[in-house]
Amino acid sequence: MDNNAVLPDRDILDDILSSQKHITDGYNTFSNECVDQSLRTDFLNILRDEHNIQQSVFDQMQSRGWYCPAKAQQQEIDTAKSKFQNISSTL
């Protein structure tokens, strides 16, 4: 094993983005299930900060052409919006 091996920037950013997705999942759950309001506020602040980090990494990857999700067509957006509006009206 080469102890001097360096991961390419693309792999590093991909790993960071994946990690940030998992981190925000955890903080989202913690904030949703927190009974103490002060602690919940802290979790929400941390969650916001983690989302900002995730967005920065996403923007870097997208600007370099390394992460390019397809843009949704307006019909797909309208269908999803309608579906969730129908679900929310039944709750």
Percent range of helical residues: over 70%
Number of strands: 0
Tell me the domain tally.
1
How would a crystallographer describe the biggest sheet?
Answer: none
Computed CA radius of gyration, to the nearest angstrom: 18 Å
Mean pLDDT: 92
Write down the overall geometry.
Answer: flat
Structural class assignment: mainly alpha
Cα-to-Cα separation, first versus last residue: 56 Å
The parts where pLDDT drops under 50 for at least 5 residues are none
Strand content: under 5%
Counting DSSP H or I runs of 4 or more residues, the number of helices is 3
Question: How would you spell out the order of helices and strands?
Answer: HHH
Account of the 3D structure:
With 91 residues, this protein is mainly alpha-helical. It has one domain. It has three helices and no strands. It has helices at residues 9-32, 37-63, 74-90. The longest helix is centred in the middle third of the chain and has 27 residues, at 37-63. The chain is flat.
Keywords, separated by commas or semicolons:
91 residues, single chain, mainly alpha, 3 helices, flat
Task: Briefly characterize the structure.
This protein has 3 helices and no strands.
Furnish the topology, listing elements before pairings.
Elements: H1 9-32, H2 37-63, H3 74-90
Helix pairs in contact: 1-2
